[in-house]
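Practice problem: predict the structure.
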Amino acid sequence: MSGRQQQLLELLYYSVHSILFHRSVYTREEFDLASKYGETQYILADPQVRRFIDTFLAQVDAWIETGDITHMVMIIIAKDDGRTLERWTFDITNHENGLSITGPGGASTTTSATNGPSNDIAVPNVLRQLTAAISVLPDLPSPAIFNLQAYVASEDRNLPGSLPEQWEESTDTYPFGEDVEIQQSMLRGVKTQGREINLLLTSLDD
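Answer:
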């Protein structure tokens, strides 16, 4: 795995754990502390859940490498009735030539891989944006659980990479209820040579 791809995977890894921590899906006591990028990161301690996340991201990594994945979604779900409370969508784009830098307004430019901030700076900046975005959200209305989904563009039923046994194809997109108001926030992501990840938060507008 290249250093650039490793940093993209680390962004996904620390984002998932950070969301679980800051949205109080698990209690503070259920997290370990780790020093990364010169800051404290919160990593869920439960070995079974960590294994689920690690296994999921290992497959995502394989699909990033082949260019088959289009986005990864983390869904926060009400534990009592299964309502979708939040969707964190990581859009994953592959570019063959240079970097396509897309801002919240949708405008894009193309530049060479040698331009722009280092990913050593970009990844912690995204994590800080994520924390800042969470800080203005209301508390979740009820105890919650989470799920992870990966969307791939390949039409081949035998997708690249061997799927773990516990994986299954799903048609459930976890939509929000028709009678609820939602809001969306775009966070600037990370760009490397050939790949880009941007983050879109969709949450209830209470």
